[in-house]
Design goal:
alpha+beta, 3 domains, 7-stranded mixed sheet, 6-stranded mixed sheet
């Protein structure tokens, strides 16, 4: 018998540490080689680490929310059989070994690499014990909103569901009226995992970037007519067009004219990098929080290709299957609240980018057009810029040019 110390491998992106999102095992579990061991969070994605050996889990070196440095111990697994090598030990370790203790060993073979969630991860996240309890209770875990890291369904979530009560729910009397008894429930939720990553990113962005917000009103009547026509006549293998591909096309056309908005600012080094390529981030709401998958080289796409890529990336992000490459490298971001878009917003810049453009809700409104009152489809664009890099005049000029292109959509397709 021997002990294998599983250490956090280098999972890319030059990170020095990673946060424990969720354990798939507990102390005492007998596990197989390559069995899912733990989910670790990078700035971009949840990475699933498999066990490099088979054996019994004797120690876990942290709890969800704890940060582990690269090379730091994550778990200790008791193994059997040959193929392990004793690590270098201090004299005290040698004495301990002679006294009958088990030396700490490390596997000589290469550790299996991290893998992003995929395969059967369409099913709700939960531990084996929770799944077993759910089967015994004949409960579909998909019916339960998980409160654990990454939306994981915990034993407590399951028990509450089975009991028919959720902490903090307002009690209702048998007559169906509101119960006059005061509800003093308080729910404490530890901010960990992806939610903490989002919070830290937003905080850094607002602390370090002087945001300059600019909102402009657009008449998208002609654009909407074109979009509806294209959707009505599209081929079966073509995706349904939303407004986003047209906005992407406008941004791509304007990058040569406004290179300062398609940039990343390394403020520590004092260097602005302007990109000829348009790597457009698409802010996407997922069950686990907001992520920004990236449509790489949008300058090479027509509106159909852009629509397909946006849909593919959004589906991957919501399923937790987007790769680190698909979640990094954006040079400018588009954000949209869809039908909830409201009148205006002040989007937070996706650092180290210097610009973000937000789409608001389209509404029909009477407006004066050529001396006559007409009902037109009106939408606001809400944008934010890093005022250290983009001057207010340039920001306003950029949005005005976007407005011109979208209000006269034929110009989007002209050289």
């Amino acid at each position: 018998m021997g002990l294998h110390v599983f250490k956090l491998p280098d999972i890319g992106e030059g990170i020095a540490e990673s946060e424990i999102a969720a354990w798939h095992v507990k102390v005492g579990d007998v596990i197989k080689e390559e069995q899912a061991l733990v989910d670790m969070l990078t700035d971009k994605a949840a990475v699933e680490l498999p066990s490099p050996v088979a054996g019994k889990v004797v120690e876990l070196k942290g709890a969800p929310g704890d940060k582990i440095p690269v090379g730091g111990a994550l778990a200790v697994i008791e193994t059997s059989g040959a193929g392990s090598t004793v690590e270098e030990k201090k004299p005290a370790d040698d004495r301990h070994s002679r006294a009958g203790g088990n030396p700490v060993v490390a596997s000589p073979k290469e550790e299996p690499g991290p893998r992003l969630r995929g395969g059967d991860e369409h099913r709700p996240l939960a531990s084996p014990a929770t799944r077993r309890r759910a089967r015994e209770a004949n409960v579909d875990l998909a019916q339960i909103s998980g409160t654990g890291p990454g939306g994981r369904v915990t034993q407590e979530d399951l028990e509450k569901f089975c009991a028919g009560g959720i902490r903090g729910q307002i009690p209702i009397s048998k007559s169906g009226n509101w119960d006059p008894t005061p509800n003093t429930a308080i729910e404490e939720i530890k901010v960990i995992g992806l939610r903490r990553k989002i919070a830290e990113s937003m905080q850094r962005s607002k602390q370090r970037i002087p945001h300059f917000a600019y909102v402009e009103e657009l008449d998208v009547t002609e654009l909407e007519a074109l979009r509806e026509h294209l959707n009505a006549t599209k081929q079966k293998d073509q995706p349904k067009l939303t407004l986003l591909p047209f906005l992407m096309r406008a941004i791509v056309k304007l990058i040569p004219e406004f290179p300062q908005v398609n940039a990343r600012f390394d403020d520590d080094a004092g260097v602005v990098r302007r990109y000829a390529a348009a790597h457009i981030g698409i802010a996407t709401q997922t069950p686990n929080g907001l992520v920004v998958p990236v449509a790489k080289h949008a300058e090479t796409m027509d509106v159909w290709a852009a629509a397909s890529e946006v849909r593919r990336l959004a589906d991957a992000a919501r399923a937790g299957k987007a790769t680190r490459d698909e979640l990094s490298g954006s040079t400018i971001t588009i954000t949209s609240l869809g039908a909830l878009g409201g009148i205006a917003s002040t989007p937070v810049i996706n650092a180290p980018e210097v610009a973000i453009v937000g789409v608001n809700k389209i509404v029909e409104r009477p407006v004066v057009s050529n001396g006559h009152i007409a009902v037109r489809k009106i939408m606001n664009l809400s944008s934010s810029f890093d005022h250290r890099v983009v001057d207010g005049y340039d920001a306003a000029s950029f949005i005005q040019r976007v407005k011109q292109l979208l209000e006269h959509p034929a110009t989007l397709f002209m050289p």
